[in-house]
């Protein structure tokens, strides 16, 4: 059982160097009383007198103190080395980072993460896990994941998050739809038309609620779990849809043209965020990933689809 | 327990109309002996003499036969009505049809199915289920699905299938890749480069085996469950990939250009097929769906991405 602290050793070295408690206290930016107390505590902790205190507050090392000074210097150097290695390791982003990515965001975020975050940091061991936003957060709370890239709408109450990109929904219609030439529409203008739904749990649970709160009760006539199948059905005139992610080309996988319409008036947004668990001090790699996503999101919010130029 | 057959009734009506067994046999295109036998069998079945046979092979109805003639006419009309309803119902494609669709094919097939098969046949109650190709076939064998649209490589041994579209793999690289200007490559030219894998169970299990049999052992360095994330990673120069489905636009979701290269020499194909269970007589709606997919696939094989123009 070690009873002394590294702080006490640090002060002891300062006293030995300065030759007096008052000078060491001044150099260490603490009071003389605190420095004097620290020396008393250190001597009690090691069970030996290290210093001979003189009237004029000068000090001399005892024989034991002289030997201890040597050992203390070596120990402090070692402790600094250990600390330095920690810092260096954190500066080059080493260690494991398990990133969960909500499936709907995978196509938009995984490529830029791999190219601009994983690849330039070979010391990092990044694992990407794709899945449902809420399920991934559950896994994170159990300790299996470090972070989850998802929508703010899907956040569990127990997690922390940083919003990294805005996600305002838009209306998608076929290029030959009666409203396709417009740049924006009110949701109420579509109330009588068939809706093509993206049939994923988190979308289902959130989007329809969101649309109803925005005054539209969509007539869900068609649906698919595939984002591009939804776009394809819209392109074929089976109905309109409301989506958040925006591919750069308004053409379906069938080669049919689509038109994007902004939504006029208030509508619930579904921003993109990085969720993480509370911890006293998030690791450097976690903070680096948060910063990275924030930078990509800001560039995309500014109109750069790549988020990396 | 009914012992007579509709065929016997049909012949009995013919005999009553013609007034003789020989004339009725001629009209019905069977032999006199067969007609005579049919009348004997019918009388034995109903347990009563219906006809009085005369020497010149003329016949007269008994009193019981006269009453039976009326009932038989009514029953035959009813039976024809039932038959007619069956035909009509089958001609307008009524009834349930549960279609399984392998997830990777959803974006390419669900829109055209909904527009050109489901919507024009409102009497049909079509349910589309998306999932893993092998799992969907297992569900079909348990009776939960009628058909499964999948790859020939994923077929379970117990199912029947009809191939509807060819699926020759191709190489995808970034537009600034050293080989991007070529129209085709040998797989061996890519052996030293990183591979970006589409990490779906059926792809994993089949594609790598397929590529190894074609002489390439891919160095899988990156992967995603998302088709567009794979394309995005390729567009960012992280590696090449081998895919089968061909979206019409060679641009990733990040807005980065891609290049498609055909594969020179022999390579295992992964055709698209409709799997169904063996049954003595597949329903008209099942056959209609098989024909529909075959037509769409043939048009796509001929270069029409929509498969429906």
Automatic annotation (TrEMBL), chains A, B:
Family annotation (SUPFAM superfamilies): Periplasmic binding protein-like II (SSF53850), Winged helix' DNA-binding domain (SSF46785)
User: Keyword annotations for this protein?
Assistant: DNA-binding, Transcription, Transcription regulation
GO molecular-function terms, A-Z? DNA binding; DNA-binding transcription factor activity
Q: Does the keyword Transcription regulation apply?
A: yes
Q: Does the keyword RNA-binding apply?
A: no
Look up the signal peptide feature and give its range. none
Q: Name one Pfam family in it.
A: HTH_1
Domain HTH lysR-type, chain residue ranges per copy: 4-62
**Would you tell me the Gene Ontology cellular component terms?**
protein-DNA complex
What's the family? Belongs to the LysR transcriptional regulatory family.
Q: Per its record, how is this protein called by name? A: LysR family transcriptional regulator
């Amino acid at each position: 059982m070690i009873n002394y602290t590294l702080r006490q050793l640090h002060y002891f070295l300062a006293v030995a160097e300065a030759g007096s408690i008052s000078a060491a206290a001044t150099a260490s930016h603490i009071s003389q009383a605190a420095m004097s107390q620290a020396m008393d505590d250190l001597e009690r902790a090691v069970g030996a007198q290290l210093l001979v205190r003189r009237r004029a507050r000068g000090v001399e090392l005892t024989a034991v103190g002289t030997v201890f000074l040597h050992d203390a210097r070596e120990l402090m150097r070692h402790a600094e080395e250990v600390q330095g290695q920690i810092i260096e390791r954190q500066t080059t982003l080493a260690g494991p980072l398990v990133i969960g990515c909500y499936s709907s965001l995978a196509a938009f975020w995984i490529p830029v993460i791999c190219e601009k975050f994983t690849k330039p940091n070979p010391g990092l061991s990044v694992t990407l896990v794709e899945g449902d936003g809420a399920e991934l957060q559950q896994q994170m709370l159990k300790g299996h994941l470090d972070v989850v890239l998802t929508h703010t709408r899907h956040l569990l109450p127990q997690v922390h998050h940083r919003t990294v990109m805005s996600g305002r929904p838009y209306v998608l219609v076929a290029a030959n739809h009666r409203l396709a030439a417009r740049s924006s529409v009110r949701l109420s203008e579509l109330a009588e038309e068939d809706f093509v739904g993206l049939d994923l749990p988190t979308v289902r649970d959130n989007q329809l609620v969101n649309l109803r709160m925005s005054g539209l009760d969509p007539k869900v006539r068609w649906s698919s779990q595939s984002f591009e199948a939804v776009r394809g059905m819209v392109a074929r005139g089976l109905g309109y849809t409301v989506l958040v992610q925006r591919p750069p080309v308004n053409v379906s996988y069938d080669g049919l043209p689509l038109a994007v319409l902004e939504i006029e008036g208030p509508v619930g947004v579904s921003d993109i965020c990085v969720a993480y668990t509370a911890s006293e001090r998030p690791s450097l790699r976690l903070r680096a990933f948060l910063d990275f996503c924030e930078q990509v999101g800001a560039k995309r919010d500014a109109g750069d689809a790549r988020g990396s130029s």
